[in-house]
Amino acid sequence: MEGALDRLAAAFIHPRFAPECIDREVNAVDSEYQGLQKDGEMYLQQLKKVLTSSQHPYSRFFAGNIQTLKEAAHQLNLNLHEQVANLYQKYYSADIMNL
After folding, report:
1. Would you place residue 36 in the very low, low, confident or very high pLDDT band (cuts 50, 70, 90)?
2. pTM for this one?
């Protein structure tokens, strides 16, 4: 356990965004998406979104899958690795985060 906190902190301070890790994460997101569809949670979330004000961020995008993350990025000629790094640079800042 010694050094574990330092390794965890380093992942947040200097994330690697290795392409193979991004592919693995896309697959994990897709797996979660598929699980939501099977247990009916997806439909409940969609109902909540419909009932939410369109001005509220909750009413926007709900969940990603292989099609929305990987295939759409490819069709739009977007490099998913670059997009993730750009998102990190733009939004990952302590002054705009909450716990």
Report:
1. confident
2. 0.64
